[in-house]
Amino acid sequence: MMSARAVSLPTQLAPARAVARGKRATRARASTAVRAEKMEVEQKCKFTAVPFGYFAREQLDHKGPRTNVDRGDPHDFSRPMVKGMQGGRASCGSWACSEGGWDSPNPRGTTEWFYVFSGAGAVTDPDGTPHPFGPGDVVVLPKGWLGRWDVHEFIHKVWLVCEHEDVGGASRRPVVMHASRLVPDAPSSGRIGNVCYDVGCVKVGGWSAAPGTYVIPERSSTEVFHVVDGEFFVTDGPPDGASARRCVRGDTVVLPEGWNGRVDVVGKSAARAVCCEVSRDEARAHGGVAPGAARPTAEALAASRPPPPPPPAGGFAPSVRAKTVMYDPDQYDPDANSGRTAGGFVPPARSSGGGGGGRPTRVTRGDDGVIYDPDQYDPENAGRSR
């Protein structure tokens, strides 16, 4: 009979391994159960509409910790809604992130619009100008922007990113505006809107529509909007015209290019929404606005905002850093950022065309050819290093 001292190491570890296997199996079953309970919304219509519950925190996929951080331990969570809009140039979905901060030194290859559900954060320009945002804010990060991200309180948002040509002369400054200021007061009749950002191919704003029926001819653009108030029905137009969906506060709706139909605002209150419209129009610094629509410019909005609070401890500082920062390869291109020094990144030289900054040098594409924003990049579609 073997003594206890003679028992091999694998035999001694067998009970522990069995326990570990049991724990892994339990976690796997729990994970499968969560996936099985994931909300799916059947889309019988030619447009897409989902309730807020579709983007609830427990419905988002945990993508793991970010690897390019210098503050905190932020983890990414996301769920796509519609990919490949406008011929593969645009995508939308939801993203969330826990507290932390990281540099984003590469000029953006896309323009991003997002609406903040909850939480607090800020993006900071290379010159140290912060742009804080919180619940109810509409934010635009123009193509070519670079700087820093800081999440001060677990952030949750719905987003749209769009790839487009360079916009000569357009500001690269982010735009932040609360929905209560962007969405116009309810009209007595008809539909009115405001625009806070417009470069022709990307327009961001808000609209209000009084109770009534609105016939929409075939669209030449794609519109993504988030409902902040009211109730209405969206119905497909001819030749199908039999499918409709009720939309209420908290819903996110995508009306694709080529769609036509009808919107019926019901009840006594107006329907109100924040929106982003992407089209094949030529990119230009100041696009046109529908007649009668108010058009505060991005510069005017920025000037009307109260002075932002100073960055919190650990926020962006343009001074020399004490140590080198590690960057996520999904956001950092050493060839494009070869001018970066150990003390921080150097803003790219201005182009001779007056575009307000260096030409963006990369766009993140998944294996499926879809454009992704690096901040919401889906590692399942292309191997993201950790």
Would you write up a description of this structure?
This protein has 386 residues and is mainly beta. It has two domains: 50-180 and 308-315 and 360-376, Jelly Rolls (Sandwich); 181-302, Jelly Rolls. Helices cover 11% and strands 37% of the residues. It contains four helices and 22 strands. The strands form four sheets. Strands 2, 3, 4, 5, 6, 7, 8, 9, 10 and 11 form a ten-stranded antiparallel β-sheet that branches. Strands 1-18-15-20-13-12 form a six-stranded antiparallel β-sheet, with no helix packed on it. The longest helix has 28 residues, at 9-36. The chain is globular.
Describe the structure using short key phrases.
globular; (S)-ureidoglycine aminohydrolase cupin domain-containing protein; UGlyAH_Cupin_dom; Jelly Rolls; RmlC_Cupin_sf; 4 helices; mainly beta; 386 residues; disordered N terminus
